[in-house]
Amino acid sequence: MKAAFLFGGSGYIAKFLLKKLIEENEFDRYYVYDIKNLKGFKKELKNGTISFIHTDVRKSIQVPKLELDTKKSWIYNFAAVHREPGHQLHEYFDTNVNGAKNINAFAESLGISNIFFTSSIAPYGRSLHQRTELSELYPETPYGISKGMAELIHQNWLNIDEKSRRLVIVRPSVIYGPEDPGNVFRMIKALKKGTFIIPGNGEITKAYGYVYGLIESISFTMKKKASLIVYNYAENPIVSLKEMTKEVKKELGYSKPTLQVPLNVLAFIAFFVQMIFKTIGKTSDIHPVRVKKAGFPTNIKPKYLIDNGFQFKYNFKASLKHWKEISPSDFK
Q1: Secondary structure of the chain: what % helix, strand, coil (to 5)?
Q2: How far is 70 from 283, CA to CA, in rounded Å?
Q3: pLDDT of residue 84
Q4: Alpha helix positions (H), the chain
Q5: What totals of helices (H) and strands (E) does the chain contain, helices first?
Q6: Does residue 143 contact residue 155 with C-beta atoms inside 8 Å?
């Protein structure tokens, strides 16, 4: 049996991949491991195409007894604590590092030869210069450090038997798309309301990736033969934050004005907003750390994909059109 094991398989990106794999009949069975229930696959769960296993990757993972084609089966590690800020320092390491160790042990026990790991651009750290897969890693945050450590842990698994094992690591930029829970959709909603503020002059480069493009890149790299592939995912080319806002307003017909405010002023305001919310015992998405992150460039180049002929179908304008076509309810 050719099987796929998706850890963190109930998450945003994993569900898009799961749908794609099923549509293309890539595997015979799909095993989803997560602490959150899997939603949206009732038919497949009922007919046994998908099996859901409630799992905490911070702990030892129970190994099923299965007859597997270990050379063609794949493990996908999407399990992560990622929101910054939002967690205690140790939580990033408990999940991201221990999860990688336990998933390696799971792969060893079943004898599976292929692991796909979703890392992040966070291990690159902050830089005003463009980063490619050849750039040094200088992680600065618990999330970035823990993701960098997880990459090394999976590479240790590969090094044990590099001739017969394969490891693909993707470092995605900000991912967005239908039912998007992240920053890009928050920006779109704020532009609709007329409450979005551009930090600084808006000319900074913020790398982004459309979820459908990311999924296509996963299929693309899985078909390669190299034992180790490490690649960035961002659309190519990318446009500035200011240009992104213009494209959103033009494509979606939003006409309310957009303000540009110096970053230091925004961080100062965010600090006092956070203090007020703490005083009344509530939380707010307006946080100085997030404001500073919004104003700092993430100029990420997907050099591996460019060099290997990957077709980028979704520039920012094209992705908005596609998103609006397949999920119009997101914009009502």
Answers
A1: 40, 15, 40
A2: 46
A3: 61
A4: 12-23, 42-47, 89-110, 142-160, 183-193, 211-222, 241-252, 263-279, 288-294, 303-307, 316-326
A5: 11, 11
A6: no
What the block records as the tokens of 196 is 């979005």
Tell me: the pLDDT tens digits for 278-322?
Answer: 677 666 666 666 666 666 678 899 999 999 999 999 999 999 999
Beta strands 228-233; 208-210: pairing state? unpaired
DSSP letters, 231-268, are: EEE--SS--BHHHHHHHHHHHHT--S--EEE-HHHHHH
List, in order, residues 6 or more apart from 325 with CB less than 8 Å away: none
Distance CA 322, CA 181 (A): 17
How does strand 166-172 pair with strand 114-118? Answer: parallel
Which among 74, 171, 159 has a CA at the least distance from the CA of 115?
74
Question: pTM value?
Answer: 0.91
Q: Is the peptide bond before 172 cis (omega within 30 degrees of 0)?
A: no
> For the chain, how long is the longest CA-to-CA vector?
60
Comparing C-alpha atoms, which of 53, 67, 145, 70 is closest to residue 107?
Answer: 70
Blockwise average pLDDT, block size 10, the chain, 332 residues = 97 97 97 97 97 97 96 97 71 95 98 98 89 95 96 98 97 93 86 84 86 98 97 94 92 88 67 70 62 72 98 96 94 84
What pLDDT score was predicted for residue 212?
98
Q: What are phi and psi of 93, to 5 degrees?
A: -75, -40
In Å, what is the CA distance from 73 to each residue of 30, 35, 69, 300? 10, 23, 6, 31
With a CB cutoff of 8 Å and minimum separation 6, the contacts of 122 are 139, 141, 143, 144, 147, 148
